[in-house]
């Protein structure tokens, strides 16, 4: 089964030489197949000249409708770039939860900024309801990347 990628398809790549009876790996780029080939201690000179390119929907349809094809053998291999991005997003979510927790424990609204040119741009806000008659507590912090924040101002 071979498909020609166009704008309506999501191409995935597979390589018979890297498959087994139990596992049929798929990648989102030919470069990732090549990286796996080399990581598997195979010579770059023996890398196949052509890879099988399929539309992901065709693979899913085959797995769902064909009793002779074991869909459990499908393995999608994430690129290093995709894995790094997923880890970065997970870290950002954890940082967001930490800032939300701080906001609630300190009973203060928090504004998070990043450097933008010569100034700062607000990238998130965590608001808490202030008690009637009390002054608003606001903490402004500068996000410097990788779970690092610097206090800009604290107003009480």
Explain what this protein looks like in three dimensions.
The N and C termini lie far apart (about 65 Å). The strands form 3 sheets. This protein has a 4-stranded mixed β-sheet. A two-stranded antiparallel sheet has the order 1-3. A two-stranded parallel ribbon has the order 2-4. The chain is an alpha/beta fold. It has 2 domains: about 10-75, no CATH class; about 90-155, no CATH class. It is about 30% helix and about 30% strand. The mean pLDDT is about 85.
Strand content: 25-35%
- Class computed from helices, strands and strand pairing: alpha/beta
State the helicity in percent bands: 25-40%
Oligomer: single chain
Molecular shape: elongated
Q: Averaged pLDDT, please?
A: 83
Q: What is the count of β-strands?
A: 8
| Order of helix and strand elements from N to C terminus | EEHEHEHEEEE
Helix count, per DSSP? 3
The profile of the biggest β sheet is: 4 strands, mixed
Question: Order of strands in the sheet with the most strands?
Answer: 6-5-7-8
Write the layout of secondary structure elements.
Blueprint: E1 11-14, E2 24-26, H1 30-39, E3 52-55, H2 56-65, E4 74-76, H3 80-106, E5 109-116, E6 119-126, E7 138-143, E8 149-155
Parallel strand pairs: 2-4, 5-7
Antiparallel strand pairs: 1-3, 5-6, 7-8
């Amino acid at each position: 089964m071979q498909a020609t990628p166009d704008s309506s398809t999501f191409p995935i790549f597979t390589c018979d030489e890297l498959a087994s009876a139990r596992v049929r790996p798929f990648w989102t780029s030919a470069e990732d197949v090549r990286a796996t080939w080399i990581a598997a201690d195979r010579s770059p000179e023996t890398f196949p000249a052509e890879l099988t390119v399929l539309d992901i929907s065709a693979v899913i349809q085959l797995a769902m409708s064909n009793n002779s094809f074991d869909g459990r053998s499908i393995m999608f291999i994430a690129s290093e770039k995709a894995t790094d991005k997923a880890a970065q997003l997970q870290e950002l979510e954890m940082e967001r939860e930490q800032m939300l927790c701080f906001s609630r424990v300190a009973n203060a609204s928090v504004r998070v900024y990043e450097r933008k040119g010569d100034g700062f741009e607000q990238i998130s806000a965590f608001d808490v309801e202030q008690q009637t008659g009390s002054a608003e507590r606001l903490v402004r912090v500068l996000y410097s990347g990788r779970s690092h924040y610097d206090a800009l101002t604290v107003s009480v």
